[in-house]
TrEMBL record:
Annotated organism of origin: Oryzihumus leptocrescens
Name assigned to this protein: L-threonine aldolase
A Pfam family: Beta_elim_lyase
Residues covered by the Aromatic amino acid beta-eliminating lyase/threonine aldolase domain: 9-292
GO terms, molecular function: L-allo-threonine aldolase activity
Gene Ontology terms: biological process: glycine biosynthetic process; L-threonine catabolic process
Record family assignment: Belongs to the threonine aldolase family.
Amino acid sequence: MSGATRLVDLRSDTLTRPTAAMRQAMAGAEVGDDVYGEDPTVASLEERVAGMLGHEAGLFTPSGSLANQLGLRLHVKAGEEVIADSLAHVLRAEMGAAAVFSGISSRSWVAERGLLDPAQPLAMMQPAAGAYQVSTRLVVVENTHNFGGGTVQPLERIAALREATRSQGVALHIDGARLWNAHVATGTGLAAYGQLADTVSVCLSKGLGAPVGSVLVGSQAHMDEARVWRKRFGGGMRQAGILAAAGHWALDHHVERLAQDHARAQQVAKAVADVAPGVVDPATVETNILILDVGAVGWSAAGFVTAAADRGLRIYATNAHAVRLVWHLDVDEADTAYAADVVTDLLAEAAHRS
Ligand SMILES: *Cc1c(COP(=O)(O)O)cnc(C)c1O
């Protein structure tokens, strides 16, 4: 960090810190023992999020990974399979949990930007494979798509997939860690997305700014079963209303403002496209995540990350040639302008070098 005068951290939207007002809401939360089902703030958050997503019941979890893994577990038995695109968080970023804890097998298809084409999972599915091949029980759709670059999955594509999977007895889980962003970017109702899936997980601790917490929603029977597995996995929490209060606060105050994050990601995408063609197409930047193919102008991702960090801009390498920048609650207009300057300078430097 030699000589950096500023620090702007765009590595992830998990980095948000609870605001002073959120901390006050947390301090005042009514609590009880949630393993006994006696925390009113957790219960009201679960009910609220289930209602928003058009489902019967919800379950508060300490992480999005746990919410996803409980969802997978409800639909897929040991020795059966889940399928998802090859960049999906459930396959790529949850440390093999489905295999380790639930004996779940998986396959994937390759989707550019993680964008769903229902024909791909439908071509792979084998729900009644019999005694020779693994049976498909679940398809996971990630919306928005993290490693795909904040891609919004079009509602009609999920609907088409839903219709075909349902008729074959295959379940659908939406990894909606950033479903809020899809909702704000498109104006599509959260319940319109939610109703297309058997279970949906959402994160409160990404751009919404809560320190901890996700919610899984589905039928009452599914949530009753997930509650048992949550305890088995060690995710039963006691006076968790302190955390649930942050979630309530986030839903009250931090959903609509996600539009600002989207506009800022777009602003930097355009600045980059002006100086370095081929690094990003601004038309593909739909929400708060910007992936730059710095390899297109001769940078390695690791080299670019280090050069940016030297100037006080922290970003994340998603592979050998691409970096990810994520906008969130703790990044303002001036931070965004600074990020644009650093990134465009470095890219221009590479262009002149080659
Ligand atoms: C962040 C994220 C999760 C959950 O992550 P945790 O760190 O376990 O809370 C799940 N899915 C996607 C797409 C994510 O980006």
